[in-house]
Amino acid sequence: MSDRRPRAAWRRRPEPSPAPAPPESSPEGPSVIQATLYRGGRRVASPGTLAETYRQLREHPDGMAWIGLHRPTEEELHSLAAEFDLHELAVEDALEAHQRPKLERYGDTLFVVLRAARYLDAQEEVDFGELHVFVGPDFLITVRHGAAPDLSAVRRRMEEDPGLLSLGPEAVLYAILDAVVDGYAPVVAGVQNDIDEIETEVFGGDPAVSRRIYELSREMVEFQRATRPLVGMLHGLMAGFAKYGTDEELQRYLRDVADHVTHTSERVDGFRQALTEILTVNATLVTQQQNAEMRALAEAGFEQNEEIKKISSWAAILFAPTLVGTIYGMNFDHMPELHWAGGYPFAVLLMAVVCTSLYVVFKRKDWL
Fold first, then answer.
1. pLDDT digits over 107-138, tens only?
2. Element (H, E) at 5
3. Which letter does DSSP use for residue 11 in this model?
4. Are 173 and 140 in contact (CB under 8 A)?
5. Dihedral, 327, 330, 332, 335 alpha carbons, nearest 10
6. Helices 50-59 & 74-84, crossing angle to 10 degrees?
7. Buried b / exposed e across 128-146, counting CB within 10 Å, b at 16+?
8. What are residue 66's phi and psi, to 5 degrees?
9. In what order do the strands lie in the sheet with 42-45?
10. How far apart are the C-alpha atoms of 291 and 288, rounded to whole Å?
11. Between 33 and 17, where is the model more confident?
């Protein structure tokens, strides 16, 4: 977002490391993406299994373990729970996923649920991921359900700043929070662009725009569910600064993240309001268009009815002489007035009188 304040100096990204950490995300790989041990803010080991991680952490009690998992199995989570004394309710939430963003403390372990988001340009839609974080005195465990967020970038950033990483698992948690919140910025920009396009489509009369408004509104509901609870969670963390002796730099860090979350939440609320108004305008325009079509049909029906009246009137006028002419054209030898000398003038006069009378009647009724 363009209006974000400059970050603290310790949060600036240093020059890229010549040996970056291995990727943190691999949808088709093993559930244990990466396990790393740190001492004094520097990597000392990268065990290949959870058992090896436990063993090396016991050998280095002053170290910190950072374990990343992607859709772990029940056995793996239960192994972590037994080793790090994780609460069974938090483990159950991490297994089932589909949790609302929340922050809970179980003894000296903090359990955090986050909803990350990313904007897919090709599909023009928002994809949501879920991240569970266990934070203890000497460990941090991340459990991802979905593609977002990219924690490999967070790991590289932390390893490039040993001073920040040396502050322990709490610093890593705040870096993850910042990465999740930073990931909201492209989503906000993409949604804003979608809304601008929708406004153009609405006034352009695109019949498919109603579906697009509805789908985007549903995504904004999900976006609200991801951002609104995060505001309260961050304020809860800030309220515990004094109690848990949070480092002063981390306090500034968290306040900065909280400001960005509040701004994003307000933008999302504005998007929902805008989509509601656009949907109302679209419904009004559709109704107006339908009314115009109905009016055009009514006018066409009225004109057609007028033409039918004229045709019917002239058909009735021509029916009288046709009837007389038809009767006396039947070629019978014995017919009344057939040999009467005045019969022809009388018949012509009768036909003229009938036709004139019908014409006057229809004319007064505005049929002609």
1. 889 999 999 998 888 888 888 889 999 999 89
2. none
3. G
4. yes
5. 10
6. 10
7. bbbbbbbbbebbbbbbbbb
8. -120, 110
9. 42-45, 32-39, 64-70, 139-145, 125-135, 109-120, 102-106
10. 5
11. 33
Residue 62, C-beta contacts closer than 8 angstroms, at least 6 positions apart: 39
19 — pLDDT class (breaks 50, 70, 90) = very low
Place of tokens 């004394």: 85
Query: Whose CA is closest to 92, among 79, 74, 110?
Result: 74
Contacts of 282-290 with CB under 8 Å at 24 or more apart are 282/202, 282/209, 282/210, 282/213, 285/202, 285/203, 285/205, 286/210, 289/205
Determine contact, residues 140/169, Cβ cutoff 8 Å.
yes
The closest alpha carbon to 257, from 8, 49, 30, belongs to 8
- Residue where the block lists tokens 């590289």: 156
Q: What is the rounded CA–CA span in Å between residue 315 and residue 302? A: 20
Return d(Cα 222, Cα 216) in angstroms, integer. 10
What pLDDT was estimated at residue 214? 86
Instruction: For residue 30, give both structure tokens.
Output: 């093993």
The tens digit of pLDDT for each residue in 310-353 reads 888 888 888 878 877 777 777 767 677 777 777 778 778 888 88
Closest CA to 126 of 143, 142, 147, 151: 147
Q: How many CA atoms lie within 13 A of 185 on its CB side?
A: 10
Nearest to 36 by CA among 127, 163, 154, 204: 154
pLDDT tier at 184, thresholds 50, 70, 90: very high
For 148-181, the pLDDT digits (tens) are 677 888 888 889 988 888 888 888 998 999 999 9
- Please give the C-alpha separations between residue 213 and each of 9, 103, 119, 193, 199, in angstroms, as whole numbers: 42, 33, 16, 13, 10
- The token pair at 256 is 């900065």
Return the closest-CA partner of residue 33 out of 149, 166, 173.
Answer: 149
Give me the residue label for tokens 């039947």: 330
